[in-house]
Amino acid sequence: MLDAPAALDAETQLLERRHAENPEGRFFVPLADRCRKLGDLDRAERLLREGLQRLPDYVSARIVLAQCLADAKRTDEAAGEFRSVLAVDPQNLLALRGLGKLAAAAGEQQEAIRWYGELLAVDPMNEDARAALEELRTQPEAPPGADVAGEDLPDPHFEEVFEEVFEQPQEPGAELATETIAELYSRQGFHERAADVYRELLRRRGEDPILLQRLKEAETLAAPERPVTIAEALTELLAWPHGGKR
Fold first, then answer.
1. Structural domain count, the chain
2. pLDDT digits (tens, 9 = 90+) for 148-175
3. For an engineered disulfide with 95, which of 33, 76, 82, 122 has Cβ 3.0 to 4.6 Å away?
4. Residue 143, pLDDT score
5. Are 51 and 96 found together in one domain?
6. Do 27 and 48 lie in a common domain?
7. What CA–CA distance (Å, rounded) separates 115 from 133?
8. Do 121 and 91 contact (CB within 8 A), yes or no?
């Protein structure tokens, strides 16, 4: 059995391979995020900026770039990238949260409160944002210079929203709410989770041409962006000649 570092490296190699096979696609984003998490911020930024030259409105790429810049303590540039995301998608949860974190770390308490307040207006179930907002309101302003490291994608709160929606008893209008959740997932770039919502709605409603079309679109968008698991990485690497050595 491979140890954790070797397994992580296998996942990175698989992302490298997929990006090399389709350099004009969108694999540069998960590869860049992988580099960011492993501490190679220069490579991550280079991949993202090159990709954004082709796809300047690709929100997921700008989010990861902002996180990369935050990790590098380039907070003004990170804030600029988060703001550029909001110019395209004013309700982007990761951008709102990122700006809240940056403002709080800089000691700009009122600015942080504003961003977290906007986040909760979009996503009232976000308990992390609610806790951060309450802490900001009850504590004196923090000195600037706190940790502003970027957060990992995907946002784990989306999983909580998805589970909570489908665990609740169905009431009139509940399906509309889940369609709204699916659309929110899609706007944030979580296409596989949007597809999960549409599948559940189709199971409940039966065949619905509009939902079928939305499911097809979500599945198409999810295919190149689905995160690579360690198991998948190892399986594909072992399929290469000589156990993954080229």
1. 3
2. 455 444 443 334 334 434 444 444 444 4
3. 82
4. 55
5. no
6. yes
7. 9
8. no
- pTM for this predicted structure: 0.59
Q: Does residue 46 fall inside a structural domain?
A: yes
Q: How far apart are CA 164 and CA 127, in angstroms?
A: 13
Query: Is pLDDT at 90 greater than 80 in this prediction?
Result: yes
Q: Are residues 180 and 235 in the same domain?
A: no
User: Does any domain span residue 69?
Assistant: yes
